[in-house]
Amino acid sequence: MNNSTTPLAAPPFVTAGPWIVLSGQVGVDADWRPVTGGVQDEMHAAFANVRTHLAAAGAAMSDIVKVTCYLSDLSFFPDYNQVWSEVFGTQPPARTTFQVGLHPPFRVELDVTAYRPVTR
Asked: Which of 31, 47, 78, 99 is the most buried (most CB within 10 A)?
């Protein structure tokens, strides 16, 4: 899991004023290797990568207003709910979840929209 604030590669986000749109976050480590373990490990790694890229854009997880989650199988939704609660606590952003075909070995992919306040 990437716990640093160093971006993994060229930023996978665009900014438009205070808005940040981050796309295609999957469970990879800092060397772009898929994480091993269960689907929750993969989800934690994907959210850690979100955190890293948002930090590079000057934002934090608390700035997220919307998450779109793509699951390779909706049977992973209870795992997603568990990780979601751990990541966001009692004040989560809006979210949408879809079942889609993901490139193996990935089972989860995240897109995030954040609002970075103009003054920090």
From this structure: 47
